[in-house]
Each structure stands twice: as C-alpha cells, then as structure tokens.
Amino acid sequence: EADIYQTPRYLVIGTGKKITLECSQTMGHDKMYWYQQDPGMELHLIHYSYGVNSTEKGDLSSESTVSRIRTEHFPLTLESARPSHTSQYLCASSEYRGGRYEQYFGPGTRLTVT
Amino acid sequence: AQTVTQSQPEMSVQEAETVTLSCTYDTSESDYYLFWYKQPPSRQMILVIRQEAYKQQNATENRFSVNFQKAAKSFSLKISDSQLGDAAMYFCAHLANNNDMRFGAGTRLTVKP
Fold it and tell me: Does the beta-carbon distance from B105 to A42 stay under 8 Å?
C-alpha cells in the first residue's frame, strides 16, 4: 500500500478564500505531482517537483502555486478560490527503485467553490 | 510529447466474463513505461499493472493481463473472470524518459451481475 496522504478529502469554500491542499508521502520519493481531474474526465498535470526547492508547471495552466520545502510535503495553494477551480485534485509521488518505476496516488481532494 | 488514446469511453461486461480495454499511444522513444490505473467511485487511483517497453513478455497480475504490441503502439488490458468490484474508470498511462506521464481519457467499465 502506498503511503501518500491528502487533506482535506472534501472542501467546500466560498469565492475569494485562500486555500491550501496538503499532500504528504512517507516513502522518501523525490518526485511529486499534482493532477486536476473534472468528474469522469482525464487527469491533467498542473504541477510537479523533482525534489526539494524544485517546482515546475504542468500541461494544464493553473492559477494555483506549489512549494517543496521538504521532501515529504508538497502543498498546493489557491490565493483566491473561484468556482472555476471546482474540481478533484490528485497528488502523486514516484521513484525509480530496483529496476522498477513506482508511482502512487493520494486519495484526492474534492474541492467545491461556491 | 507523447499522447495516449483510449477509444472506448464506456464498456460493460457480464460478471465472470472477460473484457478487453483498448489503449494506443504515440511516442518517439524506444524505452518507456506503460500503466493501467483503476479509479473506483471512491476516486482513489490504484495501479493495476505496469509494463516496461523493453520487456517483450506481457505483464500479468492475477486476473489482469496486457497485450503489449510495441510496433503497433498498442497496450490493451484484459480482465478475466470479471467481478463486481472491477467496476471503475480505467486509465491507460505512458511514462516517458523525462518522467512526463500522460494519461488517456479513461474507460468507464460497468460489470453486470
């Protein structure tokens, strides 16, 4: 089982609020990712990190920001939430170990902005 | 950049029967990884099976197996003896050498009792 956690699991918040979605992993993986997924739709990469102090934007433009101060922690922040930010946010981490590539996903945060 | 195509938005299978989900991809690389992920209604993404492109042998995990056709850039998933718990969205994914991971649009699998 993967040890990657996301909090909160569900969040309903009003427009204009600042929110931070937490993601933590205890596997010591260097690479971490944030994906956005609308209901029943494909995943889109919005941010990724190759290690501490490394952050890059993904394919899908996002108004969110991320930070990577510690290996195990990769929070995503929205400074001013809008209804268009309503979506499912999935965090993942990966590592290449022992000749195998491993990527694991967190349980996701379902965000609703009213 | 690589692309992943899942041409079946929805599939259904009778319990205990076999179903095959299709996936094709486009890449210029010769070495890469392919994955099938399952996403049940609870929305937790679960790795079902992985395939290294340099391996000719098709990966198998219990009731799940793949048909990997490298020349055709095809990576289908076969689920044998389907169970009600197999009902989920299934995503095919391609991982490039630069760690760029691309997902298909997903196939919603329904299992009929």
Answer: yes
